[in-house]
Structures are given as C-alpha cells and as structure tokens.
Amino acid sequence: MTTYTAKSPLIAVMRHSEGNRIVKERVPSLVNSPLLHTLYFHEVGLILGTEPGLRGKPEEVAEILRLIESLEPEDLVARRAAAAAVDVPPPSGDYEPESVERGSAVAEYPTTAAAQERFELTLAGPSDGNPFTEVELRAVFTSPSGGTLSVPGFYDANGVYRVRLLVPEAGEWSFSTTSNARSLDGVTGAFTAGEAAAGSKGVVRVAKTFHFAYEDGTPYLPIGTTSYAWTHQGDALEKQTLDTHAAGPFNKMRMCVFPKSYLFNENEPELYPFEGSLLAGFDYDRPNPEFYRHLEHRIAQLDGLGIEADLILFHAYDRWGFSTMSPGQDDRYLKYVVARLASHRNIWWSLANEYDLLFRKTTADWERFAGIVQANDPNGHLLSIHNCHAFYDYSRPWITHSSIQRQDVHKTAEFTREWRDRWQKPVVIDECAYEGNIDQGWGNITGEEMTRRFWEGAIRGGYVGHGETYMHSQDILWWAKGGELHGSSPDRIAFLRRILEETPGGFLEPLPGAWDVPAAGIRHEYELSYFGFNQPTYRNFVMPAGRVYEVDIIDTWNMTIDTLPDTVEGRFRLELPGRQFMAVRLRAVG
C-alpha cells in the first residue's frame, strides 16, 4: 500500500488527485512555476521547505505535509469513470424541429478534385446552442472501386460545417451525409478525382516492418527534429522557423497542438485552442476555429517543404487546464482535431508527449483515445505515443511505430536492434537528448554526441530525432519555439541523410558481424561500418573471395568521403586516420 511522507518524491504526490489538489490550492506558485517538472524527483518536504512562497512559514509547511501524509490510496480508473458519468450528454436525435426539411442545407463543393489532395464539402447549417457538442455530422464517401469511407465533419463557427477527405484514389466519387441536424442529414453529391499531381507521393506508411515509405513506394527516411510550441510564437518567429527548415536537413517535426508552460516557455500564445482566457478560464466544449485555422496553415506550409508534422495531441506542461479536462472533453477535443486535420497528407498522430506525466489519464484512456483517432481518420495516418520514463506497450496493434525518449542517460540508439526485435515495428527515437547548454541533462549534449547518436541508430536500423537547446537572451530555444539553429549537428545530420538516401534498396538493415563495430546494408554487396567514439588507425576486413569492392573512408564529423584509388577483395587491411566518428563503406563492383 502506498503511503505518503515528507520523503515521498513530489511526483508521487502530484500523481494523486487529492494530493495534486492540495499542492495546487496551498502552493499555487509551485504548480504554476515553469520549474515544476524539474522538481518532481526531489522529496516533497525538501521542495516545500525551499519554496519561496513558504519561506518563514514552518507551520504552513507542516500543515501541508500533514494533509499529504493523510492521503489514502486512490483508484484512478474509478475516478475517471465517475467523471465521465457526469459529463455532457451525447447529442440528441432532434437538434432541429421536424419543420426543417432534411438535406436542405446549402452545400458547396468542387465537382473535380485530384488524388492525394483534399476534397472539402461546406454546408450552411444551424448555429443554435452549442453546435460543437450538440451536432453530429458524418459523410459516407463511395470510391471508384466501390469501397466506402466514413468521414467526420466539424463545426467551423458562424453556421458553417465542413467535411474533409484526403482523396485516396482517382475516379468517380459520391457522398451522402448523416446528421442529427435535419438540414445537414441526407445531403448528397459527386465529384471526379483526377490522377495525383506529379511529385505527389501520398501518405507515409510503415514499410518492410521496420521502415517507412510513401504510398507510391518511395522510401521515406525520417530525419526528425522537435519544436514543441513553434506555432504559438507569432508570425515573425514562425516565419523564421519555416525559413530555417527550408534550408535545413529535417523532414519531420514534432509539434504540439496545445501551447507549453515550462522552462523557457513562459510567454502567452496569441491564440488559444478553446474560447476563453487565462484569467476568465476556458470553455473546453467550444473550440476556437481561428486557432485551428492558424495551425492548419502552418501544417500545410510544412507539407510544402516536404516535412511531416508529427502532431502531439496531449502533454503535461500546462497552466491552462488543457491537460486536465474531463474524459468527455478529451474525447470531443480529439474528434474535433482529427476531423479538421486528417485531410493533411503530412500528418502523423502522437497521442502524447510523455504520456506518463499526464497523471489523470489511465491506460484505458489512452486506448480509448487511440480508438477515437482511428475511427475518425479515414486515411489511417501513422499513430504512436511517447514516453517520459516507462515505455508504453508498443506492441499494441494500433501503434504503428515506437516513439521513444531515452531511458538511459548515456545509451539510447545502442538499444535500437533490441527494440526492433521486441516490438517488430519501426524504432523512432524521437528524443535521444538535445544538443545544447542548459542545465538539464536532456538538453546539454554536444553536436558530436548528437551526430554520433544519429549514426548509431541508423546503423542499427532505426531513426533518431534531433533537438536543440542553446541558451538565448530571449529564451528562443529551437526545441520549444523554433527560430534559428545554432548547433553544429544539423549539417552533419544532412550529410548522414545524403548517405542514407544512397543506400541500395532504400533502407539500411543491420548486419551480423564484428562484436565491436556495428554494420548495416546488404551483406557482401553494400556494407557500412561505423566506429563511433573509437579511433582505430587501421581495420582488417574479410569479404568473399572473388568479389571486388570499392572502399569509401567516411569522416562523419568533417563530412568527407575519400574513395580509395584501388579496389580490394578477400581479406584486406584498411588504414584509417585514428580519429573518432569514422565510417567505412564497401561497395561491390559490378
């Protein structure tokens, strides 16, 4: 049985709903501090004793500790079920009176479209009450091959409803709507979709168990980065972020729907995802369409740059209440977001950043959320969930790929093959730590170490993500707000990307071989060995007799490739420069 004392870590108290309430009411300065999450693993007594707002108040500290020590174990699953039981009732079947003619809403839509592009149906409908919660709308699309797709609609304010579909194939399409609002029910139409535009590769899918490819079969190698709150920073900084991407190596970006409250993240956003304000509170049952139009615009701009938007739906770094909504509010928010955004080709869904810090949500909640996303995304975009400490069960069938934060301070990419074997899915190490110089251990590795981790993951058949946290006079750190890159790893990551894109067959597969040097490629045809932080002056190799190989000596840090003038075969010795971060590539001739 769990007991709570002054020596309990703060995180244990904050996980308890009553403990959370006690701390929030008694020490609001702590709960609202951007430092909160960095203090979680200190003893709660130590934290209270050093909290600025409690200095010189030993009696108050003692009373808070007394309340904490009186906490009883709780059943979080039962609490969530009780909260769901008193939520907003589901939409009724008679939103509009019988005098309203069925299917009478004015509909606007194009009669022509294209595969791999968005088709949008716009309906002029009712605005009484709260259409966000009281109106249900879906459309069933019938494809040229006779299959059907059920697509959710959403309310876009001022009596406007929309249904969006990323058209998966060319040909003749038709649709019919269903709704509890009579005017929106039974609207029908048809359109012709032409072939996909040249260069349109389609949605990214899992390929060959451990990798990714676009729908047209073109390999997709995720070279990702993170800027959690970049869409909450205003036009000037957001434009700078896009300009940086246009010249950068990255083709995937982790980003949040919600704004972030944390270290270096104390500014208020210009727009909020719900109606309301920080002072007056938010109506979590009324999404703010202007906020989502802005988000859509930025996601579309990323697509124009060839960048996948890995969209994080929940996170714990919050002072607005978005992480502690009721179960029903969580569900309605998810349905709304997915209905609005699933027609973007470049969307990936991440249920959470650090799901295990969202204390009020249970495994049952995450499983339900996954079902909601899948039921409302007719295009079946990639879907995962990211950890802080404990891994989620990545073997769950709804998870398309792992999204990993390192569990060991020093080793992460080295575990890639083990994780591939365990889950039989692509391994994406979205957070291996960040290049930077802040005080947190997750944000002060060198550019050399970031580059090394990228190479270690790639050679083992996985994909490592980048982030950057260099101190800035205006708190503009790439990992949170975007802006400009200041580190030394992005150019080296671009160099790695070029090498990966030269791989025969499109994907690096780990190879059996020496115990001390990982290798990948196609055995005896194309082999890439990486020496990491080791610095040999030579290396002996053994390849099949009768096969001739060209040799590339690759300096992954100085970004050079030296092709030896002579070919090799059988057993041979290669002289190496005795520097760290070297690689050798053997390419069979003929």
Give an overview in words.
It is a single chain. The chain has 590 residues and is α/β, with parallel strands linked by helices. Helix content is 25%, strand content 25%. It is built from 15 helices and 31 strands. An eight-stranded mixed β-sheet has the order 1-3-6-5-4-7-8-2, with helices on one face. Strand 17 (347-352), helix 11 (363-376) and strand 18 form a beta-alpha-beta unit. Helix 10 runs parallel beside helix 11. The chain starts with 9 loop residues before the first helix and ends with a strand. The model has no long low-confidence stretch (mean pLDDT 96).
Structural class: alpha/beta
What about the largest sheet? 8 strands, mixed
- Let me know the average pLDDT: 96
Q: How many H/I helices? A: 15
Q: Could you list the spans in which at least 5 consecutive residues all have pLDDT below 50?
A: none
Strand element count: 31
What fraction of residues sit in β-strands?
Answer: 25-35%
Oligomer: single chain
Fraction of helical residues: 25-40%
Q: What tags apply to this protein structure?
A:
eight-stranded mixed beta sheet, alpha/beta, 15 helices, 25% helix, six-stranded antiparallel beta sheet, 31 strands
SSE arrangement:
Blueprint (H helix, E strand, L loop, with lengths): L9 H6 L1 H10 L1 H4 L12 H7 L7 H12 L6 H10 L20 E3 L3 E3 L3 E7 L6 H4 L2 E6 L5 E8 L4 E7 L4 E9 L8 E7 L9 E4 L3 E4 L4 E2 L3 E3 L8 H12 L5 E5 L17 E4 L3 E7 L1 H16 L3 E7 L12 H15 L5 E6 L10 H14 L6 E2 L17 E4 L10 H8 L3 E5 L3 E2 L10 H13 L3 E2 L3 E2 L8 H4 L7 H13 L8 E2 L7 E4 L3 E5 L7 E5 L6 E7 L4 E4 L7 E5 L6 E7 L2
